[in-house]
Amino acid sequence: MVLAMNEFEPWSTYPSLTPDRLSIVGGILRQVRHDAVDLHEPFAGDSPWSLGCRIYSRTCFALRDAAAKYDWLTIVDEAEPLCFTFAIGSVPFKFYRGSPADPPGRLLEMTFGELRQQQLVFDIEGIRIIDKILRVAIETYSNGETATISVVEMDKGGVVTGTYTIPAEIEVSNVMPLQAKPVDLPAPTLEPIEDSQEKEEENGELGAIPGILG
User: Fold this and answer.
1) Domain ranges, ordered by start, for the chain
2) Residue partners of 73: CB distance under 8 A and separation at least 6
3) Displacement of CA 86 from its chain's centroid (Å)
4) What is the separation, in whole angstroms, between the first and last Cα of the chain?
5) 15, 26, 104, 167: which has the highest count of C-beta atoms within 10 A?
6) Are residues 101 and 140 in contact, defined by beta-carbon separation less than 8 angstroms?
7) Total H helices, total E strands in the chain
């Protein structure tokens, strides 16, 4: 039975897949795609193929770079140079562009590196995921920008057993909110309020003097 969107909580089954870690990986994938789309120039000869190649290459590079920063993110050794697998904690992943409900057939095959990593999950965390395949699906808009990023769990037959949409969050921890500079205002000058009766009498006296207010 396929679970409805976000009924599947990856960290419940795979403890290393915490919301924070998934958010960081999702942010990397989203930012890389945005930057690549921003450089895409169809009128200069760029094609969807060249855009896809650039995004794939840059995504692999960005994840390798992030793996040097986060000890929970690793790159899995693969025999094929173009085969890319990464792991969150000990759980292996591949990513693809497309719907989480319809993973491509080529990603249903487990690579040697992925199988070895799954054995590592069992040895370290005691979790048997040999019958499950985990992928990251990236859905896009027509302009190539990211629409959603989802964790997809499926069996070896390609039947999706769970999907979780990674929330799109903006990194704000190191950003100071914009505020107007403080302005030094002088102290207000308070003047006594003239008594209305006195003012009327004064105006009456002035009006009686020729050449003034008349």
Assistant:
1) 10-165
2) 21, 24, 25, 63, 66, 67, 86, 87, 88
3) 18
4) 97
5) 26
6) no
7) 5, 6
